[in-house]
Amino acid sequence: MSSPDTPELKAGHPPAVKAGGMRVTSRPRTTSGSEVKMTKEEQEEFGTGSPKTDPKHNQHILLSGVVTQGDKDFSDKAVKKFHEAPLPKHEKRPAARPVHNIQQPQ
């Protein structure tokens, strides 16, 4: 038999624990707090500082080749009308079910 220090392994890992009729596996937790270190070659290629930010970078958006001005191009009423769904003009009633007459001898 196996010693009490080493648990019985099935397929190379310990069997699952049952709690409330369900199998519960114990997985090792991984933390995402580990920082990725840059190698010396990457530091030479990309630099060590943070990327430069341009204050006017996201102010203008090109829309089909034309620079947009945000609120000036599209009024609030136009945007609201575009986002609202149109109301139906006619009420759709459910179709009547067809009657299936099966011809059978009595």
Automatic annotation (TrEMBL):
Region (Disordered): 1-58, 81-106
GO biological process: apoptotic signaling pathway; cellular response to amino acid starvation; negative regulation of autophagy
Highest taxon above the source species: Eukaryota
A molecular-function term among this protein's GO annotations: death domain binding
Pfam families on file: DAP
PANTHER family named in the record: DEATH-ASSOCIATED PROTEIN 1, GEO09647P1
Name of the protein in its database record: Death-associated protein 1
Lineage of source species: Eukaryota, Metazoa, Spiralia, Lophotrochozoa, Annelida
